[in-house]
Write a structure and sequence with these properties.
3 strands, alpha+beta, three-stranded antiparallel β-sheet
């Protein structure tokens, strides 16, 4: 049985670093009367939306990719896996995928979270109170290619005052 969002959200909020906890909020909704019950997860920072995961956007990216891969002779199952992996690498995720990753994150220690193969888990680790300055400012974290991980890392750097003076976080490129 799936736990209520409010309980999962409260548990996640308890993991946040103090400098982040007062500025970040995460929201989730499901459009129950829409076809396929699409949903959306979005993060706000000081009340401004900074990132979102949207089922509709995710599937609008995955379906055409899948069709292209099938058209060039790809295996149906492999085409689904590949198209979903491409969408996720581009920073998109389904709401169900996000929720599953969040549940896994809540069960991990800090080291396992920061080294996870899943970008959502690595991103959430950037906000974790158990993850310190050395990890967040490390060269591995700085070289991160996933947009969600980069965004949350940059926000943590600014919130903690660890950001360099010449680097500023902007909200104009929010997804």
């Amino acid at each position: 049985m799936t736990r209520q969002w409010s309980k999962v959200k409260a548990e996640f909020e308890r993991t946040l670093a103090p400098a982040v906890a007062t500025r970040l909020d995460v929201h989730m909704t499901t459009y129950r009367h829409a076809h396929e019950e699409y949903g959306r997860v979005w993060f706000t920072w000081d009340g401004l939306e900074i990132y979102s995961f949207d089922d509709m956007k995710f599937w609008l990216r995955v379906h055409p990719l899948h069709a292209e891969l099938k058209a060039i002779g790809g295996d149906v199952d492999q085409s689904w896996d590949t198209s979903m992996a491409i969408a996720e690498a581009e920073g998109q995720e389904s709401v169900g995928g996000f929720r599953a990753a969040l549940d896994r994150f809540l069960g991990l220690d800090a080291r396992a979270a920061t080294t996870s193969a899943e970008p959502v888990i690595r991103a959430l680790a950037m906000l974790d109170r158990r993850v310190g300055r050395r990890t967040v400012t490390s060269s591995g974290a700085a070289a991160e290619g996933h947009p969600f991980v980069r965004r949350l890392r940059d926000l943590r750097l600014d919130a903690e005052g660890w950001a360099s003076r010449d680097r500023h976080v902007t909200f104009t490129d929010a997804d």
